[in-house]
Amino acid sequence: MEVLVPEALAEVAAVWAAERADEWRMSEYVETGGLRWGQAFGQAANVSWPFARIRVSRERVHLTMKFWKIWNLTFDLEKSELQAIRKRHGLFSVGVQFDHRKGDYPPFLLFWTFREKTLFGELRRLGYNVLDTSTT
User: Fold this and answer.
1) Torsion angle of alpha carbons 102, 127, 111, 92, nearest 10°?
2) Residue 18's Cα: distance from chain center in Å?
3) What is the per-residue pLDDT across 79-95, written as a single tens digit (0 to 9) for each?
4) Cα 53 versus chain centre, distance
5) CATH (residue range 28-135)
6) 112 vs 94: CA distance, rounded Å
7) Where are the domains of the chain?
8) How does residue 68 score in pLDDT terms, banded at 50, 70 and 90?
């Protein structure tokens, strides 16, 4: 039987913590961007980078918008509430449009990204079906 001395325990604890941190990082993706929300693309409010953030996990997509201390919004969509995720082209960037069935949220939710390939890849890696068709 092996007896662990305090130095060995500290080393084991450090390795365990590093492994858990890697698992946590792999279980979600976070990016800063912009956000557009409202009834439709032409009837929506918009903030650009860096006032919005997307946090994607295997269970949900969490969109937040913080415009200094004036305006704060949060949209939390569980995977089961998402009907479609699609690409949407803007003038200078690409957005990710989230079609959902959450009645108390605006029907149109779009996250603006400069890292389109990374974001779409992370959505797919975390188990989301991203449509390849784009809306202009």
Assistant:
1) -150
2) 23
3) 999 999 999 988 878 99
4) 7
5) 2.30.29.30
6) 6
7) 28-135
8) confident
What is the 3 state secondary structure string of the chain?
Answer: CCCCCHHHHHHHHHHHHHHHHHHHHHCEEEEEEEEEEEEECCEEEEEEEEEEEEEEECCEEEEEEEECCCEEEEEEEEHHHEEEEEEEECCCCEEEEEEECCCCCCCEEEEEECCHHHHHHHHHHCCCCEEEEEEC
Residue located via tokens 């603006």: 112
Segment 17-33 shows an average pLDDT of: 70
Residue 72 sits at φ, ψ, to 5 deg, of: -130, 130
Report the pLDDT value the prediction gives residue 24, as an integer from 0 to 100: 47
d(CA 76, CA 61) in angstroms, rounded, equals 6
- At 82, list the tokens: 């998402």
Q: What is the pTM of this model?
A: 0.78
pLDDT confidence of residue 61: 98
